[in-house]
Amino acid sequence: MTGSPPPGAADRPGSFFIGSRSTAGSPAVFPVLLGLPVLLWQLIFFAGPLVFLVVITFWQVKSFRLSPAFVADNWEKVLTSTAFLRALGHTLTVAGTTTVLATAIALPAAYTIAFRLPPRLRDFAVAFLVVPVFSSYILRIYAWQVVLSPQGVINGIAGLVGIEPLPLLGGAFSLQIGLLTLTLPIAVLILTFGFAGVDRTLIEAAENLGCRRSRVVAHVLLPAIRPAIALAATTSFLLAFGDYVSPLFMTGSKPPTLSIVVVDTVKSGSQWPRASVVGVSMLLILVAVLALGQLLSRRTRLRRGGR
Amino acid sequence: MATRILPRLSRLAQHLFLAGLFVFIAAPMLVIVVFSFDANRFPTIPWGGFSLDWHRAILEDAMVRDAFLNSILVGLGTAVLSTLLGFAAAYVDYRWRFFGKRAFVLLVAIPPAVPVTILGMAMLAFLSRLGLFGRLEAVIACHTAVASSFSMALIRLRLNDFGRDLEPAAWNLGASHAAALFTVVVPFCRPALIASFFLSAAVSFDEFMIAWFVGGVHETIPVRILNLLQGQVNPKINAIGTVVLAVSIALVVLAQWFVGVRVGKRTDPT
User: Fold this and answer.
1) What SS3 class is residue B50?
2) Closest residue of A to B174, CA-based?
């Protein structure tokens, strides 16, 4: 985090409470008073549930009741079931496709926002993109359903021109439309801030040395924003991988993704341990993907330092 | 000549591409609003004529009214708690160094990165053991755990611009820590605090998986929409959607207005 106290402050003995040794009677009370509620809240309502989820994966269901145990049964059953493996493969393919599409579409868009728009329009574009990140995702998916459905808007227009209704809803196409609705705004935002953070003198230097725009983009801009690209890609993957709404409404959950499997298993009642195994597996995959993203952005930093 | 035309064409293509993307993002919202005033039962082309029937119908729907009320309660509760906790977390991160600080900050920052499906399931399992399941308070508590991440980020960003010497100056002048906090730090953070209030309300107002799992029979408005969508085609959805869109867009825009979203540094002469 930025804005940490001046170097050396923490090395001094007793300087836990920076710059306040003279005023505070009992220096440790105040930070505890402020920090403890936050800590407890996040432990009870965030960390606790996740830890408990891991614990449940080892429990058993006896006569429709969940009972504490320590068996690897659930893991074995789920991880070897073809239904799970098929859903896993499907979810990975879908999320991977979304990641590639979202990054490929967001890159030129972010470039245009960061370098081609005048400042006021640029701020407006960013403000516009922030809105869908925080609002109305489920409604927008419903709207796509209205637009793409067999009797929907597009086919209504096609019908007026005399084109046969197209089967737009219910396949990979509509699923990607839904997932891009979810991922594109945030991917464009991350990359726009990435481009905006590039040192303009680097670009001018390259141009002065005779680089054409395409070479500037390939050799200066893209390497410079590699961390932002990695972040945009991992964020897109994370959102698409865990999404429940698009698979449900754009494909009617056929074939099911892992999120659909989780919800169906939970709602059907008695199979909590197995649903937890699926959930924890999803988390493990996401941790691996995040680590990969970190690795990809760190390698640039090392290489740049070596030059 | 060709060397002049090519860059222009390329620029035009870039702008058209961006415009296309913005249409893609805005279109779904427009569709909802337009068809909420459509007289037809099923939303399609051609338009069935202007009508306020569906807007009137949702006013008479008790379940929708209750859901709105629940959403407002949960949104307000989440906004207040998340801003309080987010401020405490941001200030602790700004002011002190201690063992385990990284873990502390991560514990607040990470929740939005966990898929809500898994988070909702885990919260349901855990909270039902604590006897908190199926209550609006539980939804508020869980939404706060997620939204405080955004609150902390907004307030921490503001604290970056807060002079490191201002607080010690207040202490030297005899102010207690609490007095300095409330008369120096909090007023400085006010825009971020207000923004955090609106943004966490928006996050709560939009969230449906956690609310669906944890809320039990107490539906918030997005949960009501989710349940309506799983049934028959219901023309009320567009009307509900229009109201929800108006509220959530207003919340996010207000939040942005108070922090002033800007790209890059504006002080540069370039």
Assistant:
1) strand
2) A23
Return the C-alpha torsion angle B165, B167, B172, B174, nearest 10.
160
Structural domain contains residue A292: no
Give domain status of residue B6, yes or no. no
The pTM for the full model equals: 0.88
Number of domains, chain A: 1
Interface test with A, best of B11, B40, B44 (most A CBs within 10 A): B44
- How many CB atoms sit inside 10 A of residue B129's CB? 13
Cβ B261–A127 below 8 Å, yes or no? yes
B130 and B106: one domain? yes
User: Which of B38, B74, B117, B259 best tests the A interface by mutation, with the highest count of A CBs <10 A?
Assistant: B117
The Cα A145–Cα A174 span in angstroms is 9
Burial of B94-111, coded b for 16+ CB within 10 Å and e otherwise, reads: bbbeeeebeebbebbbeb
- State pLDDT tens for residues B144-199: 999 999 999 999 999 999 988 888 899 889 888 888 899 899 999 999 999 999 99
Test mutation, A12, A20, A32, A41, chain B, max B CBs within 10 A? A41
What CA–CA distances, in Å, run from A65 to A60, A270, A275? 8, 7, 15
Q: Do A31 and B115 touch (CB under 8 A)?
A: no
Same domain, B235 and B133: yes
Question: In this structure, what CATH number is given to the domain that contains residue A242?
Answer: 1.10.3720.10
Range of the domain at A184: 93-255
Q: Name the residue among B7, B159, B177 with its Cβ closest to that of A30.
A: B177
Q: Taking Cα atoms as reference points, which of A109, A86, A107, A105 lies closest to residue A97?
A: A105
Residues B121 and B252 placed together within one structural domain of the fold: yes
Nearest to A46 among B17, B107, B261 (CB): B107
Query: Considering only CB atoms, which chain B residues are within 8 Å of A111?
Result: 14
Among A127, A135, A192, the residue with its CB nearest the CB of B202 is: A135
- Write out chain A's pLDDT in tens, 307 residues: 344 444 434 444 444 444 444 444 456 788 888 999 999 999 999 999 999 999 999 998 877 778 888 888 889 888 999 999 999 999 999 999 999 999 999 999 999 999 999 989 999 999 999 999 998 899 999 999 888 888 778 887 887 887 877 778 878 899 999 999 999 999 999 999 999 998 888 888 888 888 888 888 888 888 889 999 999 999 999 999 999 999 999 988 788 999 999 999 888 876 889 999 999 999 999 999 999 998 888 765 555 544 3
Which structural domain, as residue segments, surrounds residue B255? 61-259
Q: Do A138 and B226 touch (CB under 8 A)?
A: yes
> A66 in helix, strand or coil?
strand
Residue A102 lies in a domain: yes
* Residue B29 and residue B99 in one domain: no
